[in-house]
Amino acid sequence: MARLTRRNLFAASGAGLAAGLAAPALAQARYPSRPVQLIVPWGAGGGTDATARIVASLLERDLGQPINVVNRTGGSGVVGHSAIATAAADGYTIGMITVEITMMHWQGLTDLKPTSYTPLALMNSDPPGVTVAQNAPFADIRALAEAIRSRPPGSFRASGTGQGGIWHLALVGWLQAMGLRGDHVRWVPSNGAAPAMQELAAGGVDIVTCSIPEARAMIDANRARALAIMAPARNPMFAQVPTLNETLGINYSVGAWRGIAGPRNMPAEIANTLGAALKRAFDNREFQDFMASRGFGTVWGDAAQFATFMAQSDVAMGEAMRGAGLARS
To answer: According to the 3-state scheme, what is the secondary structure of the chain?
Structure first.
């Protein structure tokens, strides 16, 4: 047995003290060591909120800390997006940013842009469909496109959201891709896809551009028909609806998307931890089933891919807004 001397005693005490100091330091360094706030710029109960909550529940189980979803609404999305961008870049405030971040600055609503954030993951994209009333005289998207081209500007009316919203810009981009002015079809603002679909069925408008899941109730009730989808490929949930490229030879796609981001300049270690956890959440069967049950599209993009995707979206939205006469910057 080793002889206990004063020197050994002090050495043992010093080692114990060092270990005792190191343990809390290591525990403190481990991320996350306390609850994380996930900001949603849109109201409770909507598609963005629902998507954020399923992601939060999976992250919470994975990371071992509460992930608290907080709805910060107002200013057409500016309030919530600003709260994400201006938070401390320590990983304890992140958020679900949406396509509007590539639109609001063009409208002069904010200086925020995709580059105002640390992108973590793209998780969802829902392209719009081109929907007409069940009794409309257009057998397919070709017939509708020919009718739009052959008639004077303003002959057709379309709706799906407010002026300058994503579904309005989807229509503008499609018209421009056909070689027409962005205002060739008159836009009738609405408070969302649901009232627009009601107006379509009642004959108040001729076309609605919104995601097919949003139009699904009217389609299932045999009061509307989806003629095409503005996407690179068909949606497996609505496999009978062709793409614009298949039917018109127009390689145009757009959509409402959702992704997770944090404030700019987040530490790489924290961003990597969150990115890996988000990939596991995305791959989780619970997430995939949840999104499929609502008809939401699942699209994965890691941090670098999400940054590239947002940059491309930003350019496309700027072009569409200029075409619609809505760009102010």
So the answer is: CCCCCHHHHHHHHHHHHHHHHHHHHHHHHCCCCCCEEEEECCCCCCHHHHHHHHHHHHHHHHHCCCEEEEECCCHHHHHHHHHHHCCCCCCCEEEEEEHHHHCCCCCCCCCCCHHHEEEEEEEEEECEEEEEECCCCCCCHHHHHHHHHHCCCCCCEEECCCCCCHHHHHHHHHHHHCCCCCCCCEECCCCCHHHHHHHHHHCCCCEEEEEHHHHHHHHHCCCEEEEEECCCCCCHHHCCCCEHHHHHCCCCCCCEEEEEEEECCCCHHHHHHHHHHHHHHHHCHHHHHHHHHCCCCEEEECHHHHHHHHHHHHHHHHHHHHHCCCCCC
Predicted pLDDT at 235: 84
Distance CA 88, CA 140 (A): 51
Residue 28 pLDDT: 47
Backbone angles phi, psi at 260, to 5 degrees: -105, 135
Task: Say how many C-beta atoms besides its own lie within 10 A of residue 269's C-beta.
Answer: 11
Residues of the chain with pLDDT under 50: 1-4, 6-7, 9-13, 17-28
Q: Is 26 left (phi over 0), alpha (psi -120 to 50) or beta?
A: alpha
How is residue 66 written in tokens? 């509460």
- What is the pTM assigned to this prediction? 0.78
pLDDT of residue 242: 96
What does the pLDDT read at residue 156? Answer: 98
Question: Tell me, what's the pLDDT at 29?
Answer: 63
Distance between CA atoms of 252 and 301, rounded to whole angstroms? 20
249-276 residue pLDDT tens: 998 888 889 999 999 999 999 999 999 9
